[in-house]
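Predict fold of Chitinase 3; 1169 aa.
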Amino acid sequence: MYIFDARLPKENLNAAKMSFLSRTFALRTACIGFRFLYVEMFYKHFRLASPGVPGISLGSSKILNVQLSVRPHDYTTMFRFIYDCALGDSLKRKVFYPSNRMTSLWSLLCLTLMLFVVNVFSIESVSSGYQRVCYYASWSKYRGGEGRFTPENIDPYLCTHIIYAFASVDGSNIGLQDLTEEETLARVVGLKEVSPYLRVLIGLGGWVHGSAPFTSLVSSRTNMDAFARNVIAFLRAWDLDGLDLDWEYPASRGSLPGDKLRFTQLIRILRSAFEAEATKTGLPRFLLTAAVPIGKPVVQAGYEIEKISNDLDFINLMTYDLHGSWDHTLGHNSPLYPRKSESWAMAELNQDWGVTYWLSNGAPPEKLMLGIATYGRTFKTINGTEMGDKAMGPGRPGKFTSEAGFLAYFEICQNLQNGWTQKWHQQHQVPYAYYDDEWVGYDDIRSVTIKANYIKSRGLGGVMVWAIDMDDFREKCGNGPNPILGKLRDVLPNDNTGLVPYVPRHVSLHSTDEVQADNQEYKRVCYYTNWSQHRSKTLTFVPEDIDPDLCTHIIFSFAKLENNDIHTFEPNDHDLYRRVQALKAVQPHLVVLLAIGGWSHGTNAFSDTVATPHNILTFSSNAVKYLRKYKFDGLDLDWEFPGSRGSPPIDKFRFTSLVKGLRQEFDRTAGTTGLPRLLLTAAVSGGRSVIDSGYEIRKLASYLDFINIMAYDLHGSWESTTGHNSPLYSHDQNSQDFAVRYWMNQGAPRGKLVLGLGLYGRSFTLRSSDDHALGAEAVGPGLAQPHTKTDGFMAYFEICSLVVRGWFRQWSNDSSVPYAYSDTQWVGYDDVDSIAIKAQYVRSKGLGGAMVWSVDMDDYRNVCGDGRYPLMNKLKEVLTAPLASLPAAPAANQVSTIATARGPSPTALLALPSDKTTTLPSPKPLNQMEQKSLDMATCGPPSVCPYGWFIPDACNVSVYYQCSFRLAITRLCPPRLEWNIRRLTCDWPSVDTRIMLNVKTTVSQSNSTLTNNKIVSTFRTTVSLPKLLTGTTKHSPKLEKNDEILPTFRTTVYIPEPHTDTTTPSPHVKKNDNILPTFRTSVFIAEAISTTTTLRVPSSTDRTQRPRPVIKYEDCQPMSCPAGQLVADPCDQSCYFSCAQADLSYHACCPAPTVWDDRINNCNWHWVR
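Predicted 3D structure, encoded as tokens:
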């Protein structure tokens, strides 16, 4: 509407309206020149909006580009101000009578204000208060003593947002540094359950991260689109609320000039993806923020301020580190205003200048967060202690922060108590302190109060703090806990109006007792064990390692039964619960149950609970409360076993009563609460004697939603002969097929039966290495492996690695399963072939699905080169594919080597003439540094890891550790490469990668024939332990317990068709020769040019003395790539190529923030290079 003076003559009213409207455009245009004068004037009365607070929006004005917001009780004041300003007598005479003209600048400004306010487009809901954004430095948990800061030290009510620092860019992915980071992040996210209005974001990048990964990321639209998808999956999986980009900095620090525009594009892509995902899922949109500098050269080079401001929810101004020990004079870390004596360049290094610069270039004030540091920068003084006096480098490291030139506030305030002199700088409006030759500029309660009021006066959106872990969180200085953040909370309140409280997302389940008629949706039930987190570091398994797309149900194993209630086994089970539940964000249809019991749990607690009806009712009620509290979708009973193992015979019937009581309670509470009914399942035995003594099958089946048949552990080292862990068929009753048929014959609906598959094997030690068949005599359990560490037991990822390294694999036609052996060690297990057959069996029998024990024993880290989770992926593939015939099993007694899994098996095995032996040279004596690194090697990360060193892993030749800032960072060589202790790089297998081994290769040759124009040769290699550093070999024919060294292995190698001439063998392998690169010896097959095949074994000396070849490139790809070499990527300093046979090259990149260093053939810190 428009407001006109009521005294206007009627005949002039229309003319006045037309004149008024015609001037609107001119007035708005004229307002541009007075924009900032207007903003400063108006902010004295009203604060600009923050997203989410009730207020008045001034629509889509491009002139002011701001939102005005006031609290409801300020509306009257605002309109009175406008009326007094715009409708005074002078203004009315000059504006509303067409014959007059405006001559007053004040009148112009007031009219402009009126035009915008009365032309209100909407009243929006925005937040009622200021944002208080707190960064949490995850490495603060490594500080010692009282300086150590963990997520439990965070007061979740001090901040409106917590940004976890930092994740890193890895190609087009986002990732954390290691598993400890994952645990820490989960604990931070868990604070939202304490403070439901808290928002947790993940920070990406940081100073140490550098620019190179970002530059690579934004180099193509494809990369950025993939990154957006991966970020969304990451944020949903972790139940995070947004992403904070901390690229330091676009178009600086090695970043390309074009990255300025590409950074804007990245932000636009992320914002669009976040909006699309929110629209599609109905979930809240992720926040998108950025941490940015205020230094004029860096800002001008890297940021399109107005454009990025449109897509970012808020912008964190890093208004600190403005001075530090890199300067030659004393200067404050974050002064609010300049000193009068500062030159024009130095006068820009203050918070007020930075805020004004971002505002003047188009950043909305309500989106700017003023950065405040909870630390100070220290100097060594020379003669003076005043600002601008000369300095001579950084001050001494703090007791806990341990960084020269740097002190946390909790260290500074304790120094003040110990005699430091504190002073106040009136022009900067900040304190500083000194003692002897030490000087520090920092913020305290007084200065942050001033800065908080500055935020209010400039109408900024709030404050950002780096970092929450450096306030006086232990209350050592007498001002209460977290005095800096506490003051900011008091001065910059936020009452959360308009915000939706956090509620952990929970998937509604609609269970039914009826079996699906077509059985097309087969269950894939995955048990997850909470003790797998305790394996050795390289193969520790945590909830985040689970691929939720591979399972339809996850069963958390185990809780225990005590006093008719559920209790945890592990001290961190509640945290693990939450992290498993977080997988639902990635796969919303995932169902998570809690298993209670297990083999180690025993039977007594179950027997006590089922002893009386009262106990059963009590447990049923407690179970519902527990499951609802921790967001489980059901309960899995794993009583092993009713009527056995000390359980009285009557427990068979009492177990039925327990199941009935639980089901009735689940039904009742679902009806009264309106929540989906909890599922009820059970893990049951597949052995007939245990079934008969423990289960009333028909009755149990009427109450249970589905039944997990534990059709494994059917044979094991408790027997005197070898037997398979879980044969599909057998001549007796110890088979999976028998268990299924027996349960069905006793009344269990086939649609409720879920067949159990073991992702592990049972191992034996044979009496004789000459008898390795099924049923061979055994003298006890097989040797424990390095990760599962249990005699007679191997996880699949351990078994497949043994097969890759040469164990003989054979197939049993009778049982449709494989087994493997080496010397006197024997294991029966399931692999991809047998899993496929068993999955087809599930479909052919119309069962409800398959269950695996357990998901954490698949090859989830791709140790064996068949991809992550090969068994689970095969299971999913068969159970979800159109019904097909069973795959043909390999022929009985066929020796299936690596070729079985990775390519066609040879049609014939051909022996070469005997008595030709090639022995690899003994290792040279180690130099002092090599010996020290070897001495520090352990199975897992070393406890001593000197900065800049590389330490090998004592148990895994493909793993090494990069020492950085007191941390041992786990690194894994590319497939088929091993860590070379001499060259400090990943290398082809040799005596230098097996420094503790001597590989003696015996090649037996006889009766050579041709098959399909190729000679197929079988190599048998014996591995033995040498005596280090003597140059002599001490053979140990027997494998010692827990050693990962395999006594024998077998490899099939293809050799090209021989020529008839007798020239000297060439060391090069003919291109496209089918040489399998999966065996770990140093046997290289030379091109055969005569009927006599020569094997050449290159030594480490050969490689190190050979001059580096000149590599030519075309389109950033090497035109030649000599096998065994690592060559630089000419187009990306952080990447390199690993060369294989036949001029093949594999592209790889160094971990951030390292770059490729040709001098050492390895990744290195960029400042070292």
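Residues 259-281 form the longest helix (23 residues).
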